[in-house]
Amino acid sequence: MGRQRYLVSLIGICVGATQAAPVSANEESETRQMTQEEIEAWLDASAVDSTRDVGTVEAYPDAPPPPPRKHGLVVEGGLGGVGHLGPLKNVSPTSPEFSFAIGYEVFDPLLVFADAGMFLSSTRYAKPPPNERTYAYYSFGGGLRYTFEFLETFGAYLQGNVGMATSTEDVLVIYGYRESDELSLYFGGQLGFEWLQKNPHYALAAHAGVKNYTGLERERSSEPPLVVNGGVAIKYTF
After folding, report:
1. How far is C-alpha 122 from the chain's CA centre?
2. Could you tell me the domains of the chain?
């Protein structure tokens, strides 16, 4: 009986010693809390590391150059006005004009074209009788245009053209313009400015010029049958 009590007491002492044993050094290092000084030191080290030299930073690539201007087949439509410098200024007012041209650029600055145009007018300034009447004067022909491009977005051109023209009615015959309703020669010149658009196919233009319509020459008058015209146009190059 005394021996059994001794064994139980010995086992109890061993279990108590095991539970009271201190935590090993490795377990302590894995579970202990960092001090304030250690946290601040770690943050300072991270800040210094984030500003380290990473070498030369590559520059952004340059924007691509604009696409080249198109040169080739050209179609142009315009709207403007016509004013008379000869005797017809006392018969007809300044009138709206519509024009259309199609051509081909033989090389970059030189355009060979065929064109057609028409202006609508009346005998408003003439004294009655007869009463005021309306007529259309149309033309068709061709010519050459030489363009100088500058500043990448603007151009200027000189143009010369020649063709035939006639009136749709004999309205002007009674006022002494005997050949106004017959096909007659016309010729003239023009100065224009172009605004080249970002789209390489398009250009906007403004122009002014002088034409001589021989069919609008007045009987028994020495004044040349000149008209001045101007307007705007849009051009498309294929």
Report:
1. 38
2. 73-237 (2.40.160.20)
CA dihedral sign, ordered 7, 12, 18, 22: negative
Residue-wise pLDDT for 7-23, tens only, equals 444 444 544 544 544 44
In this prediction the pTM is 0.71
138 CB neighbour count, 10 Å cutoff = 15
Assigned token pair, 213: 């319509």
Integer Cα distance of 86 and 226 in angstroms = 6
Contact in structure between 202 and 236 (CB atoms under 8 Å): yes
- 215: amino acid identity, one letter: G
Beta carbons within 8 Å of 96's beta carbon, 6+ residues apart:
79, 80, 81, 82, 119, 120
Instruction: Write the single-letter amino acid at 202.
Output: Y
SS3 (DSSP) at 170: coil
Q: For the stretch 208-225, what's the b/e string if a residue is b when 16 or more beta carbons lie within 10 angstroms of its beta carbon?
A: ebebbbebbbbeeeeeeb
Read off φ and ψ for residue 208, nearest 5 degrees: -150, 150
pLDDT in tens, 80-115: 999 999 999 999 999 999 999 999 999 888 999 999
- Residue pair 77/234 in contact by the 8 Å Cβ criterion: yes
CA distances from 65 to 20, 159, 198, 226 (A): 82, 31, 11, 46
